[in-house]
What does this fold into?
Amino acid sequence: MASILIVEDEKDVSDVVVKYLKVESHDVKTAGSIEEMYDQLERGCFDLIVLDLLLPDGDAMDEIPTIRMMCPKTFIIVLTALREDRNKILGLEMGADDYVTKPFNPRELSARVRAVLRRKNAFLERELIHKDMKLIVHERILMIGDEVIQLSSREFEILLLMFENPKKVFTRLEILDAVWQGEERSERIVDVYMSMLRKKLSKERLVTVHGVGYKLA
It folds into this structure.
């Protein structure tokens, strides 16, 4: 069982999502606005937030970095009614872990929730070191020297894969298979995440092997 906050202003949508998640024995709370979301978070963090981006009191995408600071171990799945890749990518860049596009099948969202929570439970208490970088697995953060680098769950999983195989060059397909595990995603999403990671780590630490894929320096 996990604690989940549904941030959605459309009551019909919220009610359906709550119903499906409660069937799986999760403890589910709801909020209909950004203000209500922060009221909930001030009482305590959740394992997962399902976050609609278009809310009555603002664009929730702008709130993702604040949520990350308040609750660094909380996973975020964003709901977007916009089908443009730009909006999905922006949500991921801001720190979301996954996205679902409206209109959606509640079973699909339930499956995404299960997948995210499986990843959360798989993060064992250990640390991996590569040169000047330290990946703290159970906290899902990266240390470069004394600097703390916050990671989304997908960013973390990509780095975990690479830290466990530091000499290997990974193709896009290998990363897609290992991290997304059969979810319907194009190889382009790998390039999006690698671009985000290279901004955080620098191009010198995470390199492109032209014509092959990616590896740690």
Q: What stands out?
A: The chain has a mean pLDDT of 85. The helical segments are 11-23, 34-43, 64-70, 85-93, 106-122, 153-164, 172-180, 188-201. The longest helix spans residues 106-122. Residues 64 and 139 are 18 Å apart (CA to CA).
